[in-house]
Amino acid sequence: METVFAKTKERMEKCLDSLDRDYQTIRAGRANPKVLNNVVVDYYGTPTPLNQMAAISSPEPRLLVVQPWDTSTLRDIEKAINIADIGINPQNDGKVIRLNFPQLTEEHRKALVKDVSKRGEEAKVAIRNVRRDSMDDIKKLKKDNKITEDDLKDGEKELQNITDKYIKQVDEMVKAKEDEVLSI
After folding, report:
1. Average pLDDT over residues 35-56
2. CA quadruple 45, 48, 50, 53: dihedral positive or negative?
3. Could you say which of 120, 148, 152, 162 has the lowest number of CB atoms within 10 Å?
4. Cα→Cα distances 49→19, 126, 131, Å
5. For residue 116, how many other CB atoms are within 10 A of its CB?
6. Burial status of residue 3 (CB atoms within 10 A of its CB: 0-12, 13-18, 19 or more)
7. 5 near 158, Cβ under 8 Å?
8. What's the rounded Cα separation, in Å, for the pair 154 and 122?
9. What confidence score (pLDDT) does residue 33 get?
10. How does the average pLDDT of the chain come out, rounded?
11. What's the CA gap between 81 and 38, in Å, rounded?
12. What percentage of the chain has pLDDT greater than the value 90?
């Protein structure tokens, strides 16, 4: 039964990691290089992540600078950023690409908070699905007479405790991201 718990924790951890990656791509008004993590550039016919082709820095709170190692790829990088639809128009000066992050409006902040909450709920659903699968595994062990009725009850209780712990972590992540989005 311990293997079931270990597998459950591992899968729930992946749910948290996925939520964290989702939250990194949400633009909260401050320039964060992680918003470019999903940008893929067509580099001589090969899809290449932007962070493998250029140095990305944030010299000011509302500015990102993308400095490619090969300046001949500037146009391709600019095109890829536009296609990625991160809501910011790149400015190409021939050497680097600048991304100016505008101040978010109150309306846009509220929409972002709704998106943050929605993604948090999706993570909770994923965690509950993991719990359901693990519960089925424990019930199968009982059906195969590998554990007793008491072990089954204890296992269900332990699974619920594990689930509650991860749901609480999701709530904390949601709250932290909402606070970040709403801070001016």
Report:
1. 87
2. negative
3. 148
4. 20, 28, 34
5. 25
6. exposed
7. yes
8. 28
9. 83
10. 88
11. 9
12. 43
3-state secondary structure 40-99: EEEECCEEEEHHHCEEEEEEECCEEEEEECCHHHHHHHHHHHHHHCCCCCCEECCCCEEE
CA 104/CA 110 separation, integer angstroms:
10
Nearest residue to 129 via CA among 11, 3, 4 = 11
What is the pLDDT, as a whole number, of residue 128?
95
CA distances from 163 to 7, 27, 117, 128 (A): 13, 29, 19, 7
What does the pLDDT look like over 61-92, one tens digit per residue?
A: 888 899 999 888 899 999 998 888 777 888 98
Distance, in Å, from the CA atom of 58 to the CA atom of 77, rounded to the nearest integer, reads: 17
Rounded to whole angstroms, how far apart are CA atoms 81 and 118?
25
Contact 139, 93 (CB under 8 A): no
CA angle (72, 78, 84) in 5-degree steps: 140
Q: Rounded to an integer, what distance in angstroms lies between the CA atom of residue 163 and that of residue 169? A: 10
